[in-house]
């Protein structure tokens, strides 16, 4: 009779452990299929993908460089070309147009792309507006249940684990307490033993369910699949110049601080010269358009 009770109780506990696990597998597999189906239908616009990757400024700068609006020197300073100063030829896309307008606001002084991306409020506003507009076109992906953030199921799971371990120990002791007699008792003992072995593998089965139904970040993988076409079209040196300028977030090149003479006599003597030029600290090249002289 004891073997029969053990077989029934172990079978019930095993079903109680693996039943929710099977339902969890089914639910996670269904959500995974839905996520992959939605992502497969997404065709992000190249600039939108660049915004999601955090590379919008680099992509816009690459297009401006290719179109001849923008130049970047070896120190990472971006400056406008003659085509960039021509207001009759605006870029077709709003992000390169926003970056070109930001560069024109600082012209003729060279400025780093990183400083514009971090400190130019108008440029940031226009980039944010574009990103918000395009974000509405992305599908809302269902969230994969992970059990985190909800304390009640977590606490119930911990209590269930403790009770299951206690039951497993008790059932194991009762199973080997005495030798079974007859075919029926042996059959019940085998059923109980198999159930106890199955309970030992419950944690491993839980990890396998989670691993086999995990879909990762398919939308992120799609966005990171390839760089912006304009950035990919740059040569190696141009890409390095764009990245160097984008990494400089703190320098408004040429206009960090105005330096003038302290002596009043020197001010009077050099006043006329300072009307034509201004000494800028950290200015490695003066790019005032009125000083450009045609080559002879």
3D architecture notes:
There is one protein chain. The protein has 296 residues and is mostly helical. It contains 13 helices and two strands, in the order H-H-H-E-E-H-H-H-H-H-H-H-H-H-H. A two-stranded antiparallel sheet has the order 1-2. Helix 1 (2-40) packs parallel to helix 9 (202-212), helix 2 (46-53) packs across helix 3 and helix 7 packs antiparallel against helix 8. The radius of gyration is 34 Å and the shape is rod-shaped. Mean pLDDT is 78; it is low at 254-296.
Please give the structural blueprint.
Layout: H1 2-40, H2 46-53, H3 56-66, E1 70-72, E2 78-80, H4 94-106, H5 113-119, H6 121-135, H7 151-175, H8 182-200, H9 202-212, H10 218-223, H11 229-233, H12 236-247, H13 264-276
Antiparallel strand pairs: 1-2
Please give a handful of descriptors for the protein shown.
62% helix, rod-shaped, 296 residues, 13 helices, disordered C terminus, mainly alpha
What structural class results from the helix and strand content?
Answer: mainly alpha
Approximate shape: rod-shaped
How would you sum up the major sheet? 2 strands, antiparallel
* Ends distance: 112 Å
SSE order:
HHHEEHHHHHHHHHH
Contiguous runs where pLDDT drops below 50 for at least 5 residues: 254-296
Per DSSP, the total helix count is: 13
Radius of gyration: 34 Å
Report mean pLDDT, rounded to a whole number: 78
Q: Total strand count, please?
A: 2
What is the spatial order of strands in the main beta sheet?
A: 1-2
Helix percent reads 55-70%
Portion in strands: under 5%
């Amino acid at each position: 009779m004891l073997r029969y009770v053990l077989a029934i109780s172990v079978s019930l506990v095993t079903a109680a452990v693996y039943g929710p696990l099977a339902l969890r597998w089914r639910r996670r597999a269904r959500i995974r299929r839905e996520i992959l189906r939605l992502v497969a239908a997404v065709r992000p616009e190249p600039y939108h993908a660049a915004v999601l990757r955090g590379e919008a400024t680099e992509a816009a700068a690459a297009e401006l460089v290719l179109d001849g609006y923008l130049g970047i020197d070896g120190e990472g300073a971006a400056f406008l070309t003659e085509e960039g100063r021509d207001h009759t030829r605006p870029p077709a896309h709003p992000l390169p147009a926003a970056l070109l307008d930001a560069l024109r606001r600082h012209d003729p002084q060279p400025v780093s792309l990183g400083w514009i991306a971090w400190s130019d409020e108008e440029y940031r506003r226009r980039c944010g507006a574009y990103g918000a507009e395009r974000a509405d076109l992305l599908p809302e992906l269902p969230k994969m249940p992970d059990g985190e953030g909800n304390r009640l199921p977590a606490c119930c799971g911990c209590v269930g684990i403790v009770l299951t371990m206690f039951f497993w120990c008790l059932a194991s002791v009762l199973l080997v307490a005495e030798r079974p007699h007859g075919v029926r008792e042996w059959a019940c003992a085998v059923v109980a033993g198999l159930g106890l072995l199955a309970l030992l593998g419950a944690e491993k089965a839980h990890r396998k369910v989670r691993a086999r139904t995990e879909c990762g970040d398919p939308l992120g993988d799609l966005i990171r699949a390839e760089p912006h076409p304009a950035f990919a079209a740059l040569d190696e040196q141009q890409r390095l110049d764009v990245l160097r300028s984008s990494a400089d977030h703190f320098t408004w090149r040429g206009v960090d601080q105005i330096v003038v003479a302290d002596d009043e006599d020197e001010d009077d003597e050099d006043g006329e010269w300072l009307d034509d030029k201004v000494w800028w600290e950290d200015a490695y090249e003066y790019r005032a358009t009125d000083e450009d002289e045609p080559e002879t």
